[in-house]
Amino acid sequence: DSGVTQTPKHLITATGQRVTLRCSPRSGDLSVYWYQQSLDQGLQFLIQYYNGEERAKGNILERFSAQQFPDLHSELNLSSLELGDSALYFCASSVAAGDTYSPLHFGNGTRLTVT
Amino acid sequence: GENVEQHPSTLSVQEGDSAVIKCTYSDSASNYFPWYKQELGKRPQLIIDIRSNVGEKKDQRIAVTLNKTAKHFSLHITETQPEDSAVYFCAASDGNKLVFGAGTILRVKS
């Protein structure tokens, strides 16, 4: 168990809908990262937060948004869903951010299926 | 930004043989290089990492080497076992994030 908790485990929804994925980082970790993994694809970086502030942005669509709350949990909001958004969404956390790199610890992911 | 290329995409070895996976990166400023193992349907798990001030690191049957001049790093698994079968991802730091390679499917045949 990595200590990173993601809910829900599975999500099935229709095109055009909006969903929220939730992540609680490991105790003591201040950074939260979101990655998307499509079928047979690698891990695509979406966005990173450190202690409530956005620190880095990847190829995140405008239909997607995220935030990190004062208790350090994070939510990834996906709206106007399309079939191509079906993927495994991973949250990861680490102690630090920036140049002093610390290992990422991944949650078990949320599998999103858009029908 | 950083670009990480990983080879091969698929690797099949006989149990007991060694496996080597190679990655190259583009940004000379990258200073942290982890390797993750992902079993089918599970989360990526860190198996070993190396920082740019170190050339080699070992942990039992796993070793990673880094050549900063050539901007490439490799994962070496010796005495492979069936439970080593998984997808392996290399990654390189890029500012505040990790950029991952496309992954290598390792199959260990018994």
| CA-CA gap between termini of chain A | 31 Å
Count of alpha/pi helices of chain A: 0
| Main β-sheet description of chain B | 6 strands, mixed
Largest sheet of chain A: 7 strands, mixed
Assembly context of the chains: heterodimer
How much strand content do the residues of chain B show?
A: over 45%
Radius of gyration of chain A: 13 Å
The counted number of beta strands of chain B is: 11
Largest interface: A-B, 25 and 22 residues
If you average the pLDDT of chain B, what whole number results? 95
Cα gyration radius of chain B (Å): 13 Å
List low-confidence stretches of chain A.
none
Share of residues in helices of chain A: under 10%
Pick out the low-confidence regions of chain B: none
State the order of secondary-structure elements of chain A, H for helix, E for strand.
EEEEEEEEEEE
Helix count of chain B, per DSSP?
Answer: 0
Strand tally of chain A is 11
Structural topology:
The complex is a heterodimer of chains A (115) and B (110).
Chain A: E1 5-7, E2 10-13, E3 19-24, E4 31-37, E5 44-50, E6 53-57, E7 64-68, E8 74-78, E9 87-94, E10 105-106, E11 110-114
Parallel strand pairs in A: 2-11
Antiparallel strand pairs in A: 1-3, 3-8, 4-5, 4-9, 5-6, 7-8, 9-10, 9-11
Chain B: E1 4-7, E2 10-14, E3 19-25, E4 32-38, E5 45-51, E6 56-59, E7 62-67, E8 72-77, E9 86-94, E10 97-100, E11 104-109
Parallel strand pairs in B: 2-11
Antiparallel strand pairs in B: 1-3, 3-8, 4-5, 4-9, 6-7, 7-8, 9-10, 9-11
The gist of it:
The complex is a heterodimer of chains A (115) and B (110). Chain A is an all-beta fold and 115 residues long. Chain A has strands spanning 5-7, 10-13, 19-24, 31-37, 44-50, 53-57, 64-68, 74-78, 87-94, 105-106, 110-114.
What does this structure look like?
The complex is a heterodimer of chains A (115) and B (110). Chain A has 115 residues and is an all-beta fold. The N and C termini of chain A lie far apart (31 Å). Chain A has strands at 5-7, 10-13, 19-24, 31-37, 44-50, 53-57, 64-68, 74-78, 87-94, 105-106, 110-114. Chain A contains no helices and eleven strands. Chain B is mainly beta and 110 residues long. In chain B, strands 2, 4, 5, 9, 10 and 11 form a six-stranded mixed beta sheet that branches. In chain B, strand 9 and strand 10 form a beta hairpin. Classes of the chains: A mainly beta (115), B mainly beta (110). The A-B interface holds A 2, 33, 35, 41-45, 48, 50, 55-56, 58, 90, 97-99, 101, 103-109 and B 31-32, 34, 36, 42-46, 49, 51, 89, 93, 95-103.
